[in-house]
Amino acid sequence: MRAMEPETLTPDLCVVGAGSGGLSVAAGAVQMGASVVLVEKGRMGGDCLNYGCVPSKALLAAAHAAADARAMGRFGVTAPGGVAVDFPAVMDHVRDVIAGIAPHDSQERFEALGCTVLRESARFVDGRTLEAGGVRIRPRRVVLATGSRPRLPDLPGLAEAEPLTNETVFDLREAPQRLLILGGGPIGTEMASAFLGLGVPVALATRGEILPKDDPELRAVVRHRLRADGLVLYENADITEVARADDGGPVLCFRDGRWVAGSHLLVAVGREPGIGGLNLEAAGIAHTPRGITVDARLRTSNTRVFAIGDVTGGLLFTHRAGHDAGIVVRNALFRLPAKAQHHAVPWVTYCDPELAQVGLTEEEARKKHGDSIRVITEGFDGNDRARAERRTEGRLKLVTDRKGRVLGCGIVGPHAGDLIQPWVLALSQGMKVGPLATMIAPYPTLGEVSKKAAGGFYTPRLFGAGTRRLVRALARLG
């Protein structure tokens, strides 16, 4: 008896990966009339909902609440009994936030929209065909949105230490007695800030400096605050192995003979693309250890296949994946030659204080444009709202060309992720600082710092000798 042929689906679009990017493509395409098969082997919502943006920000919100409560005395407010952190209740809060958002990303919602959802692993059979759970899919176009996963370094003793990653740290039900963090990028720094705020002793070791992609002047503010909050920080650390203490806890061993012990170890040294099992070779899709290779239209070397978000490497952010989704929909459905524009993708590290950046840092701008750039720094200590809230440690650093066109902006301070948004618009639209300098900002707000920095571009000319001569000349005319 001949074996039964597998079922074959022939949709307009097959989306592999139900994280933020894949869900945006699927929702947009099906509502525009395309037939869509959505394949996801893990949790709907992907890393952002389940292991990344959402749980980390929920944990940080709890930490900020605890830190604010401890600091309320500076406002003349006291509470009997002090501040207590119920760690299991904090983690229940994290789960509750995830559960509140999950229906928007659920299988049921996408099936109601009209998608066919397969909760299986997908692999290419050939350049036009995929297989998922015994079902063959032969779409007109494919979108790979399989994200990324934590990278574990090749370090002796690490596996035996059973380290936490961002995929497991939110499963904790008891607070660590002392948390060790390996890695000083955004994830490691955010988790250090969160656990410190919750009263957990934290030691962080990183190969270079913390937040290496950000401006040194701005990340110095974060470093100072973390240390003031109790972080034991080891920068430029050379870790040779992970040992075990007598109580079974992890011990980070340094090449120079130092060591630091803890009860738990969180590894946050980077990400790797989620391409395992896709059988990209069968589809003729080029890739490197950093991710799938794409052109400006986000097409792979197999032009029927697009790739978006983390799986392509580069900027590993949910909002970047969302931007990519819109580009792919225009290309795949409408055959418009839309191109991804990543020069104005902002990023924010949501530690306390927050650190946000868009465009070029001062160092990057000098390498690209030489000494023709202008750099304007505006401190929060000159902002009345920051003074009222006693949060004056922040600053904004603006980089422009000699004509005032915005090249980049970095902000460290409370709500930096919100304050960066006018500068994202300015950079994406090729604007000069003039509109921001002349806008009417409500008083008193932290947003005034942007207006003041933009106005700072004109200060040397406005209050210079030429202006004074003109004013005196006009005064002589009566």
TrEMBL record:
Residues 345-453 form the Pyridine nucleotide-disulphide oxidoreductase dimerisation domain. The keyword NAD applies. NAD(+) binds at residues 183-190, 270. Keywords: Disulfide bond, FAD, Flavoprotein, NAD, NADP, Nucleotide-binding, Oxidoreductase, Redox-active center. FAD binds at residues 57, 146-148, 310. The keyword Transmembrane does not apply. SUPFAM superfamilies: FAD/NAD(P)-binding domain, FAD/NAD-linked reductases, dimerisation (C-terminal) domain. Binds 1 FAD per subunit. Residues 12-323 form the FAD/NAD(P)-binding domain. It comes from the Bacteria. GO terms for molecular function: flavin adenine dinucleotide binding; NAD(P)H dehydrogenase (quinone) activity; oxidoreductase activity, acting on a sulfur group of donors, NAD(P) as acceptor. Disulfide bonds join 48-53. InterPro entries: FAD/NAD-bd_sf, FAD/NAD-binding_dom, FAD/NAD-linked_Rdtase_dimer_sf, Pyr_nuc-diS_OxRdtase, Pyr_nucl-diS_OxRdtase_dimer, Pyr_OxRdtase_I_AS. Its cofactor is FAD. Belongs to the class-I pyridine nucleotide-disulfide oxidoreductase family. This is Mercuric ion reductase.
